[in-house]
Amino acid sequence: MNKVQASLSKIELLAVYFSYVVRYIYPLILVPYYGRVLGSSGYAVVLAGMSLSSTIWLCVDFGFSTIGGRDIVHTESTGERDAIFRNQVTARLLLCIPGVIIGAIAACRSEIISSVAGVSFFVVVGGLLNAFNLGWYFTSTGRPRTSVMIEMLGLLLSLTLLFSFIRKPADIDRVFPVIFASNLAQTALAYWLVRKEYTGVIAPLRAAVNLVKRSSTIFIYSGTAVLVLAASTYILSLLASPSDVSAFGLSERLVSAALSIMAPASQILAPKVMYLVTRNEARANLIARRTFAIFFLGAIAGVIVTELFSEWIIPLLFGPEFRHAIPILNIMILVVPLAVCTRVLGMYFLIPRKLEKLLAWSGVVGAVVNLAAAIPLASYWGAAGMVMARLLAEGSLVAMLVIGSWRAGLIREILGVGEGFSWQTRFGRWLE
């Protein structure tokens, strides 16, 4: 089994990014296809269902992936990894019980989701299945390319099935069964590849409950700010029209696709930063700052391009029926630079130092701001109101993380004050 190395590999990082091209092309192909084939109202069903499915996923995952990855990078024997693996699976199985109950109630409460036969079932079971994804395990054991290749195969299978079975608005009831079949094949392949690395999937109940307790702080962060954001489209489906849902959901999907560009880097860099924090903290901080600079500049470029060309790109890709989404997207894109700040601070500075409580409190504030603003704003202004609530939440989250980092004494490390790196080292060889 591979072990995370302290040194960075340009080839490894570029290989992962090359593999992820399929992941980026996937939404760029699929979102316009949904919009043109299913229409605005049909696509609203897809967006609301995916929002609820993602919410169930986050609830059942409960921050386990982050804790599991951090635990495994510090292990030395296969026996330790086996215990971690079994604890992870058992804890997820435990949380499937409330996941099913919450998911079923939420699906029934949404008229948009429940209006199509069979969608509620596959939305719920699809969210549960996604929570058992093994990407965290492959990454933390030094095999990010394996994880990416499995995901690529799953996306290609999903595209093939969707293009084969979804060809007219009446096919809306086939969308979620097709996505579920693709995810099931992807998950089965992942578990088959690691079948010799664990002795079983059931751990003692006490160990699983202990993992739930250890992950609770992470979940407060991901299960408040991130969870509320993931559920935004579903919440809007309860408060506004299908037209507003499609406009907001389309914008959110495009913004999420932009932010997913950070995923390959985090698969390679985050475990190495966690490893280096206890061995060479200055080097870990340097990697984190370089990562922030690259993605923040990219986010600013994305904002500029969107503001300049959205009026031309949206009708071209999605059809004239989606022109109403243009002003929503032009506001929503401002979320990207704010989200880059929160993700880098959390993943590369706070979690490696086990400062999950700071993340938790920041997440709670962000969630409270989002919910407090979303309900009145979305009720009155629809999609535009939900976007304003999202921006307020992201801004609050950034402010809380910066203040918390300052109080924890991390500002000097974040800025690199007194670490002795030359300007050439800081900006010359970014991925050395």
From TrEMBL:
Topology versus the membrane: Multi-pass membrane protein
Keyword match Transmembrane helix: yes
GO CC list: plasma membrane
Keyword list, A-Z: Cell membrane, Membrane, Transmembrane, Transmembrane helix
Bilayer-crossing regions: 12-35, 41-60, 89-106, 112-136, 148-166, 178-194, 215-241, 253-270, 291-314, 326-351, 358-381, 387-406
InterPro entries: Poly_Biosynth_Transport, Polysacc_synth
Main location: membrane
Subcellular location: Cell membrane
PANTHER family found in the cross-reference section: O-ANTIGEN TRANSPORTER-RELATED, PST FAMILY PREDICTED COLANIC ACID TRANSPORTER
Name of the protein: Polysaccharide transporter, PST family
Species this protein is from: Paraburkholderia lycopersici
